[in-house]
Amino acid sequence: MNPRQHCLDCLQRTPPSTFDAALWISVEHDATVDPQTTQELIAQLQRRISASLPLLPAAELAQPLLRQMATIGFQQDDVAQPKPQVALLHRVVERRRGQPLGLAMVALELARRMEIPLEGVNFPGHFLLRVPGADHTLDPCDGRRLYPKDCRELLLRQFGPDMPLKSEHMRTATPQAMLQRLSRNLRHLHQINDDLLSSLKDATRVMELGPGNASDYLARASLYQNLECPQAERFDLEHALLLSDDPVQRIRLTQRLVQLPSGQAIH
């Protein structure tokens, strides 16, 4: 199997292996990556952190786990011009730096190995964690508790006052949702670093992991436009048009489709 097939196969396990699937995404971008090496690093981290955790019931160890991760150097990488390494999971483990989603994936894998109940929350703009049934979430970057007021402030800082907190923002993230989000992050990171072919891999993986939305098809259409593949661009624009509920966007998409050249493209 190729790395993409390995990634998708990990999701068919019972239970799904989200961490393993994310490592195969790393392999897809760098054939020299050895998932077993990263697994060994995780095992070392597990032993080190486990020895430092307080003697509490497992349900009370999620926040101490995150705080121990922060103590040994895991933190958000918030450089102005981020590289794909802030999202590629093997690099997050090696560098102990990454986006909130990458840090959360490491924490979830450690929690799974130590039988600590913990789940992902697909919060917009900043992935969060939660102990199932708790009245608060946890910031994967430092273990800070976040209550609804704190979550509203997060939205305000990242999206402005026009985005209210909704119940859908607090939904538990499925393995597929986490890997789709990871793929969208990588799509963006590769694109802003001028690696369009890698970005295209990520954009296509988004669609294979689950149904794409209008923004997903638009993002891939833009990549095809830059790669001068008009027929593939047309395919994605047509799908974006079908999925879009925005009248203004629909008009713009229709105009863009009319302006596309006819003929076959090589891709």
From TrEMBL:
Residue ranges constituting the Protein SirB1 N-terminal domain according to the UniProt record: 40-183
Family: Belongs to the UPF0162 family.
Name of the molecule in the record: Regulator of sirC expression, contains transglutaminase-like and TPR domains
Record organism: Pseudomonas abietaniphila
Lineage: Bacteria, Pseudomonadati, Pseudomonadota, Gammaproteobacteria, Pseudomonadales
